[in-house]
Amino acid sequence: MTEWLFSISFSSSNNIHFFLTCHPHFLSFFYSSSISSHLSLTFSFSLSLSLQQTPPTSNMFIPLPPAIPPPAGSPVAALQHPNNHLQNLGAAYNPELPISAAFRLISLQRGWKPGSKTWKANWNACMNDEYDRLIGYRVANLATWQELCAKVGINDSFTSINQCKKALVRVHVNLVDLLDLWDADHIPTRFKSKTALATYTETHNKFFSRHTAKQDKVLRVLLRKLL
Which PANTHER family match (predicted)? Predict the structure, then answer.
């Protein structure tokens, strides 16, 4: 508890005396006055005080409510598929999934029967978009042809486009496999003959639109008339 003590006194020429004492527990007052030589007046009182010290106010701290974690299993926004056709179909993008597998997955979700008119139309649109995304947008210069040779396992250092074309004509690869493995470290299977390529293509239903290939100089070199 805080201790405090002070006094006040007062005297005047008229013999008036005033005295005040303050203490934590009492207050006293004394007053005297001599009105004349025969009369004097004295007055005093004391008052007991009870003082209670207010405890210091601590710093106010208002706790914030705990953060609410997202519920388990909350959906995460799916990545947008880079293939325009699959993107329009609402297919989720999985970088580990080849383009042909991604299409077959969305076709199962849509209930398309493999080989049906609807299935073929969407398959061709999907493969055309993928070719345009990976190869078709490029200028058909020497660097493009050299890269295409490397993608099918031809590592010769060709110095002209004609040399690249002559080498590619002798290579039999499935074009869908080429698109599936374009960004991978693997090359598509190289078949020994066009007949072996045709059997593989028909068995796995991995056809590429002949109409699209005829309009592209690069793709036309790789296309084989199988059926």
Answer: C3H1-TYPE DOMAIN-CONTAINING PROTEIN
- Number of alpha carbons in the 13 Å side-chain half-sphere of residue 18: 6
8-state DSSP, 183: T
Map residue 125 onto helix, strand or coil. Answer: helix
pTM: 0.63
| E strand segments, 74-211 | none
Residue 193: DSSP 8-state:
S
Compute the mean pLDDT over every residue in the chain, rounded to the nearest whole number. 76
The encoded tokens of residue 85 equal 């056709």
Nearest to 26 by CA among 6, 1, 46, 44: 46
DSSP secondary structure string for all residues of 26-38: EEEEEEEEESSSS
The predicted structure's pLDDT at residue 4 = 46
